Amino acid sequence: MNREQALELLKQYVKNDKMIAHSLASEAVMRKVAERLGENQDEWGIAGLLHDIDVEITNADALTHGKRARELTGGRLPEPVIDAIEMHNEVSAGKERSTVFQHALAASETITGLIFATALVYPDKKIASVKVKSVVKRMKEKHFAASVKRENIMECERVGLPLEEFTGIALNAMTEIADKLGM
Question: What average pLDDT does the segment 140-168 reach?
Answer without folding.
Answer: 96
